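Data deposition worksheet. Section B asks for the primary sequence of the deposited chain exactly as it was used as input, without tags or linkers unless they were present during the calculation. Section C holds the resulting structure in token form. Section D is free text for depositor observations; keep each observation to a single sentence. Incomplete worksheets are returned to the depositor.
Section A, Depositor: J.P.
Section B:
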Amino acid sequence: VQLQASGGGLVQAGGSLRISCAASRRTASNNAMGWFRQAPGKEREFVAAISWNGGRTLYSDSAKGRFTISRDNAKTTVYLQMNSLKPEDTAVYLCAVARLSVSGTDRSSYAYWGQGTQVTVSS
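Section C:
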């Protein structure tokens, strides 16, 4: 499975951005998908995850209330709508396909990773 993330860019603090990640194979529609992020010099951290049918979502504390994860299985695409962005949200955002139909915050539960898209929030 290949993953292509897009939609990143530069935005002012308080602004919004929607990033997308398209999977190359329809088998990804049977698996949970997630977003992680990695800032320079920091560990990769979990942001959000969504179950195979969109029925369950999970967010990090920093994303809760500001970010929304969704998916379109017809397009094998997962989205992350980010509102009220803060400078500390600046990072490369990476999407991933989980090994199972539901997944959590642990990186090891994700089997396939995309290259990521850069999100920069200016103050």
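Section D:
The chain has no helices and eleven strands.
The two ends are 37 Å apart (CA to CA).
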